[in-house]
Amino acid sequence: MMQENSNLLFNFLEKNNIKYRLFKHQPLFTTQDIPVLIDSGDLKTIPGLHSKNLFLKTEKTNLYYLVSVTEDKRVDLKTLSNILNCDRFSFGKSEDMFNLLKLTPGSVTPFGLMFDKSNQVNFVLDAYFLDAQLINFHPLVNNMTIGLAPQDFLTCMNLLLHKPNIINIPVK
User: Fold this and answer.
1) Number of H helices, E strands in the chain
2) What dotted CATH number matches 2-167?
3) CA pair distance 61, 59, nearest whole angstrom
């Protein structure tokens, strides 16, 4: 099913003339897997900034957020919730993530927002991505990466009706 969803994404990108580069590699489950795959040569050939994506939920009001940052950042969730003027964050349940975004742990990506037709998930993007030539995300599966120019990525998110809230993500 996940591969079918990836195919939906690729069809969407091609239909909307959004340019991307596709890279295949061994599955990545967390950002801790990145150094191993770089050492093996799997990721050495992928240019650009790599992402870490957090599926979060506010503790009291049950609002959902997908936060995309560069893979090397440790997000200060308390400060982030203050900046976004919302309750404290906790990590969202995998069942909720699947129901809302058709994603499983290890394959979290903003492209899952294509399945959030009722806009229940707020998207927050690290402003740092906008200065890169290429930004990389999983295409709904964790054994591939797609790289896009930041403007092409923003065009994609706008077409998916999930314009990101672009901020400088606070770090610990």
Assistant:
1) 5, 8
2) 3.90.960.10
3) 6
pTM of the model: 0.88
CB-based contact 54:140 (threshold 8 Å):
no
| Domain regions of the chain by residue span | 2-167
Per-residue pLDDT tens listing for the chain (172 residues):
566 878 999 999 999 999 999 988 776 655 555 554 444 545 557 889 989 999 999 999 999 999 999 988 999 999 999 999 999 999 999 999 999 999 988 889 999 999 999 999 999 999 999 999 999 999 998 888 999 999 999 999 999 999 999 999 999 9
Task: Tell me the CA distances in angstroms from 16 to 86, 102, 115, one per residue in order.
Answer: 34, 22, 17
